[in-house]
Amino acid sequence: MNNHQEAILTTPNQVKKSQRLLIGHGALVLLFGFVMGFGFLFFLIGEISLWPIPGKIDYQMPGTYDAWRMAHMEGITNGLMLWILAAVLPVLSEWVKRIYWVAVTMVVVAWTIVIASAIDPFFPEARGLSFTPQSNFASDVAFFLFYIGIVAVCVVVVIVAFRAFRASD
User: Fold this and answer.
1) What's the rounded Cα separation, in Å, for the pair 169 and 161?
2) pTM more than 0.85
3) Is the dihedral of CA 109, 68, 70, 18 positive or negative?
4) How far apart are the C-alpha atoms of 164 and 26, rounded to whole Å?
5) Residue 119: which of 81, 50, 77, 64 has the closest Cα?
6) Alpha carbon distance, N-terminus to C-terminus of the chain
7) 110 burial level (CB within 10 Å; 0-12, 13-18, 19+)
């Protein structure tokens, strides 16, 4: 291996730094999913109450069953995705030069998708499925967040797949 090749390899410190980033944000994204799960629970039971905390607030949370379920599950799915990526990062670092870039991009992916999913339960018809200028601002915000996340994850996955198949043992 020549000096140029050695200079482009990912160092163990870069892997550990990237893993800490992924694990920390994975935990926060999971917590966000858990909070949305409480919103889902309150939506389902039609009140805000948690046993053994005394009292309740008779309030029907806005949104739909599907919107709350998606917001809850996106947090859990994306948080776990970040943790899984942290676990496989040492293997990926053998082929991907800028492993920290992959980690940061996937954190952005997780947060954009989770935040976009959380918009729909609170704003009617804000699913973010298409760009609808001047008709539904909340849906347009969700759309652009989804758009950023989906484009970014596609780029990362294509790069990782390409590098994995090109890697020589």
Assistant:
1) 15
2) yes
3) positive
4) 24
5) 64
6) 13
7) buried
- 145, β-bridge pairs: none
Tell me the residue type at 125. E
Residue 111 tokens, joined: 């947060």
Question: How far apart are alpha carbons 156 and 31 in whole angstroms?
Answer: 25
Mean pLDDT per block of 10 residues along the chain (169 residues) reads 50 92 98 97 95 93 95 97 96 86 96 96 85 84 94 95 82
Number of residues written out for the chain: 169
- The residue type of 117 is S
Distances in whole angstroms, Cα of residue 27 to Cα of each of 62, 81, 113: 27, 11, 15
Give, to the nearest 10 degrees, the angle between helix 137-166 and helix 99-122.
Answer: 150
Contact by Cβ (8 Å): 40, 69: yes
Q: Which helix (H) or strand (E) holds 40?
A: helix 12-45
d(CA 153, CA 131): 20
Pair 71, 121: CB distance under 8 Å: yes
